[in-house]
Amino acid sequence: MDLLQIKDISKSYEENRVLKNVSLSIKEGEIHGLVGENGAGKSTLMNILFGMPVIHSTGGYEGEMLIDGKPYKPTTPEDAMAAGIGMVHQEFMLIPGFTITENIKLNREKTLPTFLSKIFGNRLEKLDTEAMAKDAREALKKLDMDIDEYVPVAGLPVGHMQFIEIAREIDKSKLRLLILDEPTAVLTESEADKFLEVIKKLSQMGIAILFISHRLDEIKQITDSITVLRDGEVVANVKTDEIDVKEIARLMVGRKVELSKKEDEDRGIKDENILEIKDLRVNMPGEEVKGLSLTVKKGEILGIGGLAGQGKLGIANGIMGLYETSGSIVKDGKELHLNNPREALKSSIAFLSEDRRGVGLLLDDSIEFNIAFSSLEIQDNFLKQVGPLKLIDKKKVREHANRMIEELDIRCTGPKQRARALSGGNQQKVCIARALSLNPDLLLVSEPTRGIDIGAKKLVLDTLVKLNRERGVTVIITSSELGELRQVSDRIAIIYDGKVAGILPPDASDEEFGLLMAGEDLKKVVN
Amino acid sequence: MIVPIIFLIICIAGSFFTGLPFSFLFDEMVIRLARNLILVTSLILPVITGLGLNFAITLGAMAGQIALIIITNYSIGGTTGFFLSILISTPFAILFGYLVGRVLNKAKGKEMITSMVLGFFANGIYQFVFLLLCGTLIPVKNESLLLSNGVGIINTIDLANIKYALDRLIPVTKYPIATLLVSLLVFLFLHFFLKTKLGQDMRAVGHDMEIARVSGINVDKTRIISVIISTVLAAWGQIIFLQNIGTINTYGSHEQVGLFAVASLLVGGATVERASWKEALIGTFLFHLLFVISPLAGQNLLGNAQIGEYFRVFVAYGVIGLSLVLHAWEKNKARTRLREIKE
Ligand SMILES: Nc1ncnc2c1ncn2[C@@H]1O[C@H](COP(=O)(O)OP(=O)(O)OP(=O)(O)O)[C@@H](O)[C@H]1O
Ligand SMILES: [Mg+2]
Q1: What value does the mean pLDDT take over residues A353-364?
Q2: Is the Cβ pair B214, A126 closer than 8 Å?
């Protein structure tokens, strides 16, 4: 019998019908992929399954769910957990001020009875910190994570946080079904590979997995069957063997997806440096930069690649002064004050951080406000002079937001919608729009297409290229997807052990890239 | 850290001008610490649970006074009277704490101002009960408690019966050993409590309500329990305070409890989001040291003790106002802070 059956589930947020008669079923130990564009309704379906408060505070849902053939009606996450369902949410559910152990064991703490607990009940049992640490270590070990379980989560690299969330779930003993809402979106490719291994192991232990991802190769590689959602409807429900990636993409988007290739063109980039970095050291945990030197030419798109943990993410964070930094950075001939984010923004540098899930947006404010906010705050844009006063030029903000919504295909009901009501991927597009609104002459983007569906991915990359070509913005794009870097960059710097291992043109061979990433000395470094 | 240091400097400078002998200051401080520590400590749990400064401990103080008035009515004194009043105050405090907790759960994000208003509101009811209902609907046995027309409780109640009942329970020195021991016990309890499952839940709720809820923690209930414990501690604290003072100002004793306790905690370096027994201890010490020396310093420096009096009231309100403004400012800054705009 199927472990879980979902029958004819429908859900509306006010007028907006986001799920229409969705049905699917999962067997024990099955890995079931759920794919669909940003805003297709994936997270909403999972939230229903997990009894999330947001579902019930917005009028509940229609349809029924069965577990082991018995009706299952979760109204709180507790119900779901009692039924053996675990979930890794699209946005992080970790408490930054708590240690790794405390997060992994959150509300499932190991306790020892005390004198008081015998009178007042087991909530007064004492925490058994040693046993908790042991459990945490074991769960982390299953994920091959080598990290001290007593450090606070705040400040850890994003990839680590994701593994901690997963560690929390696999630490649950009764776990029968694990929901993973885009777990690999924040992981680098190598981390993701490790992660997929773990998922396979779990499924062999009989745990069913519901897996959401925008990385279709991953879906193809790991799942047993796939459900494709489009605009809240199931458009396909197939065995993974019977379908290929192109077909999945076509079903998702409802049209054929062309992945763009880079055209040959004469770029004529002048020999003028916009940025000169010397002996940069950035103390970003897990992504340290150790004495890196690099120059960036005005008007180019510079790609930064490399394996996870080698420091590629530290560079942009260091330039922005978000982590402790030393060394020298010269922008347009002027020395940049280090460790001063505001200064960086004022020097017309904009930054799209890799760490943008959930954080960063003012969730209860409108999309247009979110887009215009930083620009307004830092650069006094979108203001109009009325007598002695500077007021927000609402019309200009609205026009700009509308243009961004169209260019990046942000799926929303309009610029006035609250950011909270957007799907995860569309929230990220708002973040991108905000960075673009700063009118930077140097734009740092880190992992710009994580968590974004393949159709929209192209839009985002195209927007970056357009910005570069039409407005002459210099772009430094950091990504763990080499393919993406090769698509847009003029040069690609590979980072190894906190330094530049070499710089290659985008059409260099896979082999050359591979060697640099592995830290091999490459004689024929170009440029 | 800067706040306690500033206060320490003011205190040292001030004590220089008072010319008081050290031994006098020391005795005075021991007594004041003993009678105030538990009241200040009662604020810690709500801070940890994310409710901010619980001005509604005023209701706990009322529960304590209700119990004291009841035992005075039956003329029960001494140690028995003291412990009986602790016992009687507890159910009242639990009830009040529960009600306050319920209201604060409806006012998430505005807990502090709500708790302040609740204090005023409860004061109205309190006056209604003791001024109008006592002697009419509520029979009062001990007629010396009633105003001359037989309705309403008198303004100042003499607690001679239980004065020093706890302070002198262990009569080894002139110091209130038993009271200090009880304060220590409360600290130890708090320390232990924070290591229990419930304590951990409170920390989780304080850090992030949403995540706590999704993890299956009953957020509302946890918050209510936190307020209840706070209120009960405040009730006991008020009884201990009053047994040392020896009289109740029926309509006034509770009014400043919230204010002074909050100011003490803040002077110790606590914030709206972070507090522990250390801040309570340091803060109570510094705040009351200032209380002791400021009238004399005022007298000696400016020839007017009243100025010192103004000064300490000014300080109490000033500290609270300043830290609330700082808190609001920090919160607002969080909106524009770079973590938010860096993307
Ligand atoms: N709290 C909410 N209030 C109103 N509308 C919402 C809310 N949450 C989601 N929506 C809407 O429901 C639709 C589906 O969103 P959902 O988050 O399920 O998408 P998704 O498939 O998970 O997308 P993504 O890949 O971007 O994460 C979207 O149109 C979104 O705007
Ligand atoms: Mg989603």
Answers
A1: 68
A2: no
* SS3 assignment, position A389: strand
Looking at residues B27-56, what average pLDDT do you find? 94
Do the chains contact at B195 and A89, CB–CB below 8 Å? no
Q: Provide mean pLDDT across the span A274-293.
A: 89
Binning pLDDT at 50, 70 and 90, where does residue A525 land? very low
Q: What is the structure's pLDDT at A257?
A: 55
pLDDT of A87 strictly over 80:
yes
Assess whether pLDDT exceeds 50 at residue A237: yes
- List all residues of chain A from 63 to 122 with a beta carbon under 8 Å from chain B: 76-78, 81, 89, 93-98, 102, 106-107, 109, 111, 114, 116-117, 122
Ligand 1 in reach of A162 Cβ (< 6 A):
no
Does the CB atom of residue A427 touch ligand 1 within 6 A? no
Domains defined for chain A, CATH in brackets = 4-83+176-253 (3.40.50.300), 260-348+440-527 (3.40.50.300), 361-435 (no CATH)
> What's the burial of A386, exposed, middle or buried (CB within 10 Å: 0-12/13-18/19+)?
exposed
Q: Is A228 in the pocket of ligand 1 (CB under 6 A)?
A: no
pLDDT at B198: 94
Kindly state the average pLDDT of the residues A323-343: 88
Find the A421 Cα to ligand 1 centroid distance in Å: 6
The answer, for B158 touching chain A at a CB cutoff of 8 Å, is no
Instruction: Quote the ipTM score.
Output: 0.85
pLDDT reading at A2 higher than 90: no
Contact B61, B254 (CB under 8 A): yes
Kind plus residue range of the DSSP H or E element containing A334: strand A334-335
Nearest ligand (C-alpha, residue A454)? 1
Q: Report how many Cβ contacts below 8 Å link chain A to chain B.
A: 97
Instruction: Tell me how far CA of residue A304 lies from CA of A177, A312, A518, B32, B93, in angstroms.
Output: 38, 7, 15, 64, 62
Nearest residue to A322 (alpha-carbon basis) of A313, A332, A309: A313
Pick A124's closest partner by Cβ from B198, B208, B213: B198
pLDDT at A265: 65
Tell me the β-bridge partners of A226. A33, A238
Q: Given a cut of 50, is residue A1 above it in pLDDT?
A: yes
A169: closest chain B residue by CA = B215
Write down the pLDDT at residue B199.
94
CB A18 less than 6 A from any atom of ligand 1: yes
Ligand 1 neighbour A54 (Cβ under 6 A) = yes
What is the structure's pLDDT at A360? 66
Within 10 Å of residue B232's Cβ, how many Cβ atoms?
Answer: 23
Return the pLDDT at B279.
Answer: 92
* For chain A, percent of residues with pLDDT exceeding 70: 94
Reduce the DSSP state of residue A472 to 3 states and report it: coil
Q: What is the residue with the minimal CA distance to atom 8 of ligand 1?
A: A421
Q: Report CA(A422)–ligand 1 centroid distance (Å).
A: 5
Mean local confidence (pLDDT), B282-296: 86
Give the CB-side neighbour count of residue B66, counting CA atoms within 13 A: 26
- What residues are paired with B66 via a beta bridge? none
Tokens of B127: 């006056």
Q: What number of other Cβ atoms are within 10 A of residue B23's Cβ?
A: 8
* B332 and chain A in contact, CB less than 8 A: no
Q: Which residues of B touch A172 (CB under 8 A)?
A: none
Measured CA to CA in angstroms, residue A249 lies from A455, A481, A487, B314 at distances of 8, 19, 19, 69
**Domains with residue ranges and CATH for chain B:** 2-336 (1.10.3470)
Closest by CA to A16, choosing from A232, A229, A236, is A232
Q: Pick the more confident residue, B333 or A389.
A: A389
Strand partners, A281: A290, A326
B42 to A88, B283, B321: CA distances (angstroms): 37, 13, 20
